[in-house]
Write a structure and sequence with these properties.
There is one protein chain. 66% of the residues lie in helices and 10% in strands. By secondary structure, it is α/β, with parallel strands linked by helices. The protein has three domains: 190 residues; 26 residues, no CATH class; 127 residues, CBS-domain (Roll). The strands form two sheets. A four-stranded mixed sheet has the order 1-7-6-5. A three-stranded mixed sheet has the order 2-3-4. Helix 1 packs parallel to helix 5. The protein is rod-shaped and about 115 Å long. The protein starts with a helix and ends in a 22-residue tail after the last helix.
Length: 377
């Protein structure tokens, strides 16, 4: 090879190397130009996924009673939260749609990024697998776990913050949300057929009452009244009745002196009257009807003052007895079984099962123990 040919060969090689370097630079800058925007977009999608997941948790865990209270006080954000929770199925569909769209878009971008980054390397064939693994971890940590934990710990605050954007999305996606809500309702109706179980048990309701009490919304006394009302229908008459040996009763033929002494000593508003023995209750007298006659030493006809008694069985529920006494406008019920008088139950006894002890000396219950010797005249 002559000198001229060698010079031309060297010049060709230099030109080829220069063009290769320039091509590499252009390729790198092109890759960088596309990688940075895609990476930023992927990061944004992951954060948006956290918004949807956290929003779902915040709206699920927020205190609806507190939100309604704030709404009644004029808080606009609370009013939006109440509007969302009142149609929570629709809100849930919108949030799930948003979350799924975000995850699909993020997966597509992550795959393209991985293919570009690993092009021409031994990992090129596994680029999509690597993208899937990395994105799954990123979504699990930054789009699910962290946002949901934060939202659960600050549910009320975050629910107020996101209320506007969620309500706006619900309006924008109304047609789509309506379609999926319809499908969801139909699916739920298939599983609800024949299901007669209550939507909420007494235990679950009592737990909710405890949580409300812990949050300071109601007082412990109010909590006890609510829980007592829940359990009220399960109670039995025999559990609260006053036994016959601790009950004040009078015979129908009681003398004026005995009647006056009994009425003045026990100060009860009503006294059962028996004929012969306590297993034969013939009526109830109201002491206010005869007190003024006794004080004036006027004759009193017990038979004329008798009011028809209300009878109950020991195994009746308190709810059944309450309805029976209310129907007959009776303040006292005589508990009997197999021809025997077992005791009495007053309306006050029933109400005390809900509201606690009632102290009213003028309307004293016959369910209080009395001294021996006062039971019968």
């Amino acid at each position: 090879m002559c000198y001229t040919e060698k010079s031309e060969a060297r010049a060709f090689l230099r030109t080829l190397c220069a063009e290769s370097v320039e091509f590499s630079k252009r390729s790198w800058f092109f890759l960088m130009d596309s990688t940075i925007p895609r990476s930023l977009l992927l990061l944004l999608l992951i954060l948006l996924g956290g918004y949807f997941a956290g929003g779902e948790t915040a709206l699920s865990y927020c205190n609806r009673i507190r939100m309604k209270t704030l709404a009644e006080e004029g808080d606009k954000r609370a009013k939006r939260v109440v509007a969302i929770t009142d149609q929570f199925d629709k809100a849930l569909v919108v949030l799930l749609i948003g979350n799924n769209v975000i995850h699909v878009a993020a997966a597509s971008i992550a795959t393209v990024l991985a293919i570009d980054l690993f092009k021409g390397t031994p990992l090129a064939a596994s680029a999509s697998v690597i993208a899937t693994v990395v994105l799954t971890l990123a979504v699990f940590i930054f789009s699910e776990t962290i946002p949901k934990n934060i939202a659960r710990a600050n549910s009320d605050k975050l629910a107020l913050i996101i209320s506007f954007s969620v309500l706006l999305l619900m309006k924008i996606l109304t047609p789509i949300a309506a379609f999926f809500t319809f499908i969801s309702d139909k699916a739920k109706s298939l599983f609800r057929k024949g299901d007669k179980n209550p939507s909420m048990t007494e235990e679950e309701f009592a737990t909710i009452v405890d949580e409300i009490e812990d949050e300071g919304i109601i007082d412990p006394e109010e909590s006890e009244i609510i829980k007592s009302a829940i359990e009220f229908g399960d109670g039995k008459v025999e559990e609260i009745m006053t036994p016959i040996d601790k009950t004040v009763m009078l015979p129908r033929d009681a003398s004026m002196d005995v009647l006056k002494k009994t009425v003045m000593e026990v100060k009860y508003s009503r006294i059962p009257i028996f004929n012969g023995d306590t297993d034969h209750i013939v009526g109830i007298i109201q002491t206010s009807d005869c007190l003024w006659r006794l004080m004036s030493d006027l004759p009193v006809d017990i038979g004329a003052m008798l009011k028809k008694p209300c009878f109950a069985r020991p195994y009746m529920t308190l709810n059944q007895l309450f309805e029976e006494m209310e129907k007959k406008r009776s303040h006292i019920a005589i508990v009997t079984d197999k021809g025997k008088t077992l005791g009495i139950v007053t309306m006050e006894d029933i109400l005390e099962e809900i509201a606690g002890e009632i102290n009213d000396e003028d309307e004293s219950s016959l369910a209080r123990p009395v001294k021996k010797g006062v039971v019968k005249a």
